[in-house]
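[09:14] KT: can someone run the structure on this one? pasting the chain below
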Amino acid sequence: MSAETGIKRATAALAAGHNKAAVQNVLQALEQRAPIARDIAGDFEDRISLGQSMADGVAKIGGSWGFVGGFFLFLLVWTALNLFTLPRPERFDPYPFIFLNLLLSMLAAIQAPIIMMSQNRQSEKDRIELHHDYEVNLKAELEILSLHEKLDRLHEDHTAQLGALLALLEARLPHQAPAREAGFGGAPE
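[09:31] RB: done, structure tokens below
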């Protein structure tokens, strides 16, 4: 069986239950001996808008320990100012901190959708990378299958050539044939 036949048989089996477009891309790359790997992250980052980039920045900052620590410090300073530090008439948000609750609600109302936009974009990027990884892995698997078939053919060809050479040697040197059959490589005793 030729390497092409094995690849076609394997891809037909794969195409039956998998993404046919991916299998076609891989077959085309195999036929053209073209690489299929590419920088998905770079391609994806080149296509983002300013709003998407800002959403990623907000999600990166808002989802960090630095933000959590800084915001905790802000809350401590706010409550300390309004409970202990400022004199009673100068307190801008006395207990129960209604203005602070308003600010926190507004921050959450703005920050949550922005973080969700960033997560949706990351999810889309992950799906594209997963599809690309599948294509690369499929091509590698088919290339390995092709190499195994080529090695099997080479082994069969070399075995046949060795058999022909041994037959030729036995025809020219008939007196050494019993020694070889007895397991000795040298001259008969």
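[09:33] KT: thanks! DSSP finds seven helices and no strands in the chain.
[09:34] RB: yep, looked fine to me
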